[in-house]
Amino acid sequence: MNENQFLLHDHHKSILLKAERASFYLQGEIIEAFSESNEVYYLFFYKYHFLAAVKAKKLRRKSFIENAFKKGIVFEAPHPLINVLHSSNPPYKMVSYQQLLKKLEKNYTPQEKAFILTFFESFFPKKELFNEINSLFFEYRRNGQLLQGYQIIRILMDFAPNHSLVKQLSNDMLFNKYTDLYNQSSEKLLTKDLLFAEKTLFAQKENEASFEQLIVLLKKESRWVDQCALRIDKLIRIPSTDHYTSLLTLLKKHLNDNETVLILERLASQLPDFLPLQQNLFEKYIKASNIEKALKMMETYHFQLSSSQVQAIGNILEQIDSTKHSFQPEMLKVLLQSYITYFPDKAENMLTKCVSTLFKDHELDFIKEWLQPFNEKHQNLQIVEKIDMMQKLSNDLDQMQTLGEMYVEFGQFEKAIECFSWEMELTPANTKPIKWLSKIYRDMGMNQEADAFRELCIDMQKRA
Length: 464
Hints:
- This protein is α+β, with helices and mostly antiparallel strands.
- It has 25 helices and seven strands.
- Strand 3 and strand 4 (40-46) form a beta hairpin.
- It starts with a strand and ends with a helix.
């Protein structure tokens, strides 16, 4: 089971789910996931704490969940922020409406309970949800707690704006002073009704002042995941060094290098022209020894490398298995020319390694031409002499044995097998190519073929 999958427990059975995407919206987070039979489930969270999992049948239009995926900040899975969300909450369990009510009653304020209930409009009868929220209002009114009661009314105004009772209550003169307070979006709301304040600031997050106020609110509640989501969203809409620096600070504090790179890669695909991000991602590729991606970025952005970066990439090339990697030849040439300028004594070793890599996708003529600029600047390179010799041998059927041995030297087993097979046909009494074929197949892990050539060699020697 990979990090994108998790189990949902439903009574006596477990359902394997795969996360598809997640929305970060107001204080809630929702993961959309699919079962192996392609059924849709939604996992609801409140400030990162798991609330309930529900199976989707039909989603109501203009419901909380629809707004969450239209107006919220949505990430496609796999994504580190989704992983953070679901990895800290299992086990996940399906719950009934009554179980949800008990959970909310135990863990949340009446205002939070009322707000959270609006999440489930598409999954539980709206009438039951409305009555439960409404009962909280009347309890406050009976106790003379008018502000707390009006906070519930504001939740109902979003949840059921056309309900006759909601219209009546929202126009009740008893609440006039609170109506004015809310309509003015006064600073006092930041302390008196955090639910409403966050909703208002989130809706106005494109405004710089509202965005910063929202960040302050999230910091006070230590909601770093929401901060990351907001900063990612902000950076996509308004790329700037300040926004990017703030995001990097958060990522460095809370995520490891691999998780940070995954987020930066997603952003890089959306912000191809934002060079601070591309440069930072490039540096992380170098640090992680991801030479293929680093070279690809060099090809796209034509980065001017510092001497330390050239040395770092050169050190990576020295250590990698050249038979398992492929590089863009011209970019590899540019990099090597820079590296060898700093470290001319390493020219022979580095060029030999890179030629081994080029052999995977290119023939001798191409490699000889590729080496030409190095041959002009660095005299008596053995690798150049070897390639020249191999090119000459390739046109002489009497030299297949020697050519095959040279291919083995570069780790080109398939090409070597072809040469030794030719030698077998041309000199059927010669056991030397057969021994080489047995050795090559053994090195390739093809023991059955290796044993067959070994037996053939032994049989030929007995008959000699």
